[in-house]
Structure formats: structure tokens, C-alpha cells
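Lab manual, section 2.4: Encoding a predicted structure.

Procedure: take the sequence of the chain (226 residues), apply the prediction step described in section 2.3, and record the output as C-alpha cells. A sample record is shown.
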Amino acid sequence: MLVRVIATIVLVAVFWLAARRASLVPGRFQGAAEMALDFVRVNIAEEVLGKESGRRATALLTVIFFGVFAMNITGVVPFLNIAGSSVIGVPLVFAVIAYIGFIAAGVRAQGTGGFLKSSLFPPGVPKFLYVILTPIEFLSTFILRPLTLTIRLLANMLVGHLLLVLCFGATHYLFFEAAGGMKALGTVTFAAGLAFTVFEIFIAALQAFIFTLLTAVYIQLSEDAH
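Recorded output:
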């Protein structure tokens, strides 16, 4: 929980500092923050939802992207060394936010009845098949979407944390406790730990992108009648 609090404070502080003295001609820090924000707005929100719907969803998608990334990246920060998203609470909270977001978008675009109808009763299907399709669509839309968002993020960050623990734990044992020629293997596990650290930085950003992209896709599916 302390790691999560620290990640949240740092994230808020970074964007507060970037926006505190915002100017028409941005400096390097402000420019970097604006590039990061534009990445979410252009490459996720507008790319998936179009300009109008993307503009409405940009705030939500931005919070999800940078929130997930901040919680992920703590796994490779010295003295923190555990991802805030490697315990189920954070992935579940972000999944619930995405869940509420795509349902609200669908209701706003189609109305409650229209959203439920398009979600549960796909057009162009013989009516007798609704007995089978409607429960499947209900499970897929209202149960499996938030569950898969949660489990995907949790599993990726937990596995990465365990790999780093194994590599550096083995390095410590081989360097300081193993005998004879076994000590040389410590260089192998240490190199593997460094490689996995770099890989975890990439995974932290990738999982934030995937989580946000899937949220945008779910919003798009909710807004458009089948």
C-alpha cells in the first residue's frame, strides 16, 4: 500500500509541475508531458473512438494509462521493488473504472434499453438462438471483460516480480553463500536479472497501453449498435 501511495504522489507531482507554469511555447519538461498526453489522446482515444468520442473519453483513458503505468513501474524502482499492480487490488480497481466507463458510454450513446438490446441481442440472428447467445453475450460483456482486464494485468506484473526475485535471490546466494566454482554462476543470474529489469520496464509500459486500448475498444463497442 505504501508503494501505491508513493506512486500516486509522484504521478500527481509530475503532472502538477508540468502544468504549474504552462506556457504557449513549452519547455522541455512541459513538452515531454504534453507528448505523453498526446500519445494517449491521438494513438488510443482518437484512433479507436474517432475525434468526437475520443475527446469525451480522453480524460478517462489518460488516467487509466498513467495510473496503470505508475503502479507497474514501481516493480523496478530501487527500494520499492514491487509493482503496485502485482496484488489484485489495483488491477481490480482499474478494471471496475473501465467497466463503469464503457457501460456509461453505451447508455449515453444508445440509452439504457438500446445498450442492453445491442449488447444482449445481436441483430441478424434467428430468434431461437437468443436462448444460447444472450447468456453468452451477458457473460462476455458484463462478467468476462472486467475479469480478463484484472487477471491479465495482475498475472503479467506478478510473474515479472517473481522472475526478478528469483534472479537476484539466486545471485545473492551464489555470490555470498555458494562454494567454489558455483560463485561464477552468480554473474549469469545477475546478468539475467538486469535483462529482466529492462524487460520489465517495457512490460510496464506495454501493459498500461494494452489495458487502456482494451478500455477504448470496449467503449467503442458499447457506443456502436451491432
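Check your result against the sample. The chain has a mean pLDDT of 92.
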